[in-house]
Amino acid sequence: MNTLGTTIDEKQRAIIEKFEAFGGDRLKKYAYLIDLGRRLPPLDPRYKTDKNLLGGCQVQIWLHQYMQAGKLYFEVACDSAIILGIAALLIQILSGQTLDAIRSANLYCLEEIGLQQHLSPQRANGLAALVARLQSGQSEPE
Fold first, then answer.
1. What pLDDT was estimated at residue 102?
2. What's the whole-model pTM score?
3. Which of 102, 84, 83 is nearest to 93 (CA)?
4. Domain boundaries, the chain
């Protein structure tokens, strides 16, 4: 059963509530993110290709997407535990939504939970590239 809700907004609100329970404890937030990343199924090696590798990132992030029954689903791999956890969080929010809903989504939860303010400029650029690719609905650069 999905406890996050069904819409992108409902999922974001549930995530914000979860992170509010950690208070100002950044270590607990990061531990939770790392755990989210560890729980992701491994990305099939056939999708670890240059076309699925995100550019502009300090770390390697591979993103594979596929459409099923009119909804978009994402799979990801990353060599950074924190970034993989953030990707897992974004996938929880966006995977299983329509392309229109994903493209029009305002992903405010990352700022609300305070993650963006603690990322290095390079990691923030990588996060922006990941969000842009997720919202584009493209698994390879245009």
1. 95
2. 0.87
3. 102
4. 8-136
